[in-house]
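Quality-control log, excerpt.
Job 1 of 2 completed; input and output follow.
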Amino acid sequence: MKHTFLFLILIMASYAGKAQYNETPESIVDNFFKVYEKEGAKAAVENIYSYGDSSMQQSLKYVQDTLAHTANYMGGKYLGHDLIIKKSASPSLVVLTYLVKYRLAPLRFTFLFYKPEDKWEVMNFLFDSNTIPDLMKSIKGEFKN
């Protein structure tokens, strides 16, 4: 049975109060993964939500529970992460995608950051387990004659 989990949390508008002026998308994600490793998925999701609109608190518990369950299904123990993609659509819009390693299979985490004024905000946070099929599709496209 194929399990694919894709969750998209759109976070718009105002800043919820945690980001500092000197934080970058990379430093916010680094902190997310530090919390993820030490305290688990629930604490890390709560951490990343603090960089977005307060309206997303309604879905916080659902996303925390779903990510914790998904991570457990992939082998339980977090084994690290690797940056897959960093793209800047403009100086104010950045996407970071990571391969998140587990014993059985990886997950993919994608963060979309927006800087409307002087602080970075999380606009989107996605995670899914469809990493390998997507990678195979992209590799196949590269080797076509």
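Job 2 of 2 completed; input and output follow.
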Amino acid sequence: MKKVITIALFAFMAGRAAAEAQFGVEVYPSAKADAEVAKQLKDAMKIEAKTYRTSDPVTKVSEFYRKQKLTEGPGTSEKGSMFYNDKVTVTVQNPWLDMKTSKINNDTLVSIVPKK
């Protein structure tokens, strides 16, 4: 039994240590990468970004980025927030517009954009 607990604890800690990061910022844990949205940003706006989607509300995602010691931009609300440092900008929004289809999406979009 002790061996099983030790293995489970090791697996949990290894998973936490392997959290995905982009441009020096940790990616929200339950967010899934959306390469299509990143491509739309690159094609339409010439922005190199990593984009992620989650079903969690903006307030919960914003709290996660607040804990990463990023500066919080003005205007944070239940629909969106922005965080930044000297290397990266993170935006969190829900709802958001798919630029290709003009569809309003009601999940939360996280965009991580490096500063040039």
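Post-run check on job 2. Confidence is low (pLDDT under 50) at residues 4-18.
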